[in-house]
Amino acid sequence: xxxxxxxxxxxxxxxxxxxxxxxxxxxxxxxxxxxxxxxxxxxxxxxxxxxxxxxxxxxxxxxxxxxxxxxxxxxxxxxxxxxxxxxxxxxxxxxxxxxxxxxxxxxxxxxxxxxxxxxxxxxxxxxxxxxxxxxxxxxxxxxxxxxxxxxxxxxxxxxxxxxxxxxxxxxxxxxxxxxxxxxxxxxxxxxxxxxxxxxxxxxxxxxxxxxxxxxxxxxxxxxxxxxxxxxxxxxxxxxxxxxxxxxxxxxxxxxxxxxxxxxxxxxxxxxxxxxxxxxxxxxxxxxxxxxxxxxxxxxxxxxxxxxxxxxxxxxx
Length: 316
Ligand SMILES: [Zn+2]
Fold this sequence. Notes:
This protein is mostly helical. It has two domains: about 30-190, no CATH class; about 200-305, no CATH class. It contains 16 helices and four strands. It has helices at about 1-25, 35-45, 50-60, 65-75, 80-90, 90-100, 105-120, 150-155, 170-175, 180-190, 200-220, 230-235, 235-245, 270-285, 285-295, 300-305; strands at about 30, 130-135, 140-145, 145-150. A four-stranded mixed sheet has the order 1-2-4-3, with helices on both faces. α7 packs across α10 (about 180-190) and α14 (about 270-285) runs antiparallel to α15. It binds zinc ion.
């Protein structure tokens, strides 16, 4: 009887712990889509034709996706046919990627300590769930509410992998290697931003600028603009142009323009946003309050005014 009581007590306790894990607290990492992907890849050898290949990817990978992985597929609009094309285009790269995805558990420890540091410095920081899936090279990380959706084929790239099958900007970006911690930290800041989105240049530049600025400040204790040589050399003239366009919703000259911009480096809006965030933060003595404002999308116009940022034009 006593043994039964102890047992049932243990079961009850166990049940409570499980309940908390399954329903009480969100999952920290979702990695179940990765083994399904490789199972599908291994099964492609059984395909007799392209239709078979597409059906294999569909049934073994896409149809078995986690709920988070499904969001990733929907946002990027990936299809089984695109996976088949991508796998046949970059076979060597996918071989080296497999080695990287087998080590995902080891990155989780690194990400846990990153989230801990961000949480200690950012008021009301909520640790997001991170889902690692594999896509077709149309984006490394994105977010859906409090979930970060990682395209591991980009996010896990490091400079030692085989990039011989790639050309152009994709080759340049991947072969430089992706800093997974910085990428996840950036996306995790997007998960903290609140109030309605506004599609103006100022709003998007500050959303992206904040997502670069806060991790640089908190994780690295410095804002490293050394890679922004062009932007630094042209900061004053970029600002003169940027300030007249803050209400525009045409982002072509400033953001997400890697494949279209011709006359200057892509994504200069990240730099402009970060400079404004940095100026605002440096001016405020109450740093916690400054961080809270940086995460509030409804405050961006006053943030710009209060930053005092004027393009660092003196002496240029
Ligand atoms: Zn971003």
